[in-house]
Amino acid sequence: MKGKKLCFVGGGRMAEAIIKGLLNKGITTPEHIVVSEPRKDRGDFLSNKYKVKVFSKNPSAIEGAEMIVLAVKPQVIREVLKEISALVTTEQLIISIAAGISTSLIASYLGEEKHLIRAMPNTPAQIGEGATVLCGGGSSTPKDLQQTKNFFDSIGISIIIQETYMDAVTGLSGSGPAYIFLIIEALTDGGVKVGLPRDVAQSLVIQTMIGSARMVSETGAHPSQLKDLVTSPGGTTITGLHVLEKNGIRAALINAVEAATERSRELSQTTNS
Ligand SMILES: NC(=O)c1ccc[n+]([C@@H]2O[C@H](COP(=O)([O-])OP(=O)(O)OC[C@H]3O[C@@H](n4cnc5c(N)ncnc54)[C@H](OP(=O)(O)O)[C@@H]3O)[C@@H](O)[C@H]2O)c1
Q: Does residue 100 have a pLDDT over 80?
């Protein structure tokens, strides 16, 4: 990754999250990053804050880039693909993060011979804690997939999957940060309801989320096993859990992932047809 010329087409929230993550972790330096962003105020913001070079036109930005990250909204991706189709080469690695846009649609504009990767990151990438999945398309090679995996591993974790899982991933980890933010907010409100100052309640919730997630990850134990260990007979925890179960928390979370996946499928059908 070090020394590679990286271009972001579209300088929005997700591009910024990745740039921030890469720079914070020292994976690359600003002089190796260019961004193509049509909105002047946004371009100025990115160049001032991250010291990256910003172009207002896509063709100038992608010239000479070794990796091109397509970070525009799905609604404008066709326009962008048309614009760059005659310019991208088989030497360049094209990584699209546009939700719901298939590798076959990208290949239909850029050509099957191009090295194409589709990825679905999430915003915690900006603090080096992203969860990304990726799959190959066009003439991408195992080396391309590994290189892209290394890229996203540097700002979190990444998993190579089959493209058919992309909608499910969008419904789970793509939308997931918003679910967790809502849970953090709600638990904090719970703390405030029982009389804690909001800042104290929020700090406790955050650390409880981090600590519990790390316990599952580091012990390798099943979550239910860890839950049982802290649930004493007739105690406070089982009383709280009973209320959560009565209010259908499991079903609510499962339904949320299912509904978001279905929405992703609907959007993909519209954008790829
Ligand atoms: N945000 C997430 O959590 C997330 C997670 C996973 C994947 N994604 C994917 O990442 C992509 C970007 O999402 P985002 O949330 O970062 O959206 P965003 O903030 O709207 O960023 C898109 C950027 O592209 C610019 N743009 C518009 N037309 C362009 C063109 N023709 N050429 C170059 N740039 C152009 C936009 O400028 P204007 O504002 O002037 O239109 C905007 O700054 C989407 O495809 C999304 O599906 C996002």
A: yes
How far are the Cα atoms of 7, 10, 63, 161, 175 from residue 88, in angstroms, in the given order? 12, 16, 8, 25, 31
pLDDT for res 268: 83
Q: What is the average pLDDT across 59-72?
A: 95
Are the C-beta atoms of residues 136 and 156 closer than 8 Å to each other? no
Mutation pick for ligand 1 pocket among 9, 13, 264 (CB with most ligand atoms within 8 Å): 13
- Give the ligand 1 atom nearest the CA of 39: 40
Q: Could you give the CA distance from residue 177 to residue 162 in angstroms, rounded to a whole number?
A: 22
Is 176-267 in CATH node 3.40.309.10?
Answer: no
User: Is 17 touching ligand 1 by the criterion CB < 6 Å?
Assistant: no
Residue range(s) of every CATH 3.40.50.720 domain in the chain:
6-162
- The DSSP letter of residue 116 is E
Domain with CATH 1.10.3730.10 in the chain: 176-267
Mean pLDDT of 107-127: 95
Task: Give the residue carrying structure tokens 């391309």.
Answer: 144
Residue 97 Cβ contacting ligand 1 at under 6 Å: yes
Report the atom number in ligand 1 closest to the C-alpha of 74: 45
Q: Is the CB of 11 under 6 A from ligand 1?
A: yes
pLDDT tens-digit series, residues 255-272:
999 999 999 999 888 777
CA-proximal residue: ligand 1, atom 31 (nearest): 80
Share of the chain above pLDDT 90, in %: 90
CATH number for the domain running over 6-162: 3.40.50.720
Distance 112 CA to ligand 1 centre (A): 24
What number of other Cβ atoms are within 10 A of residue 77's Cβ?
23
Checking if the pLDDT of 134 tops 90, the result is: yes
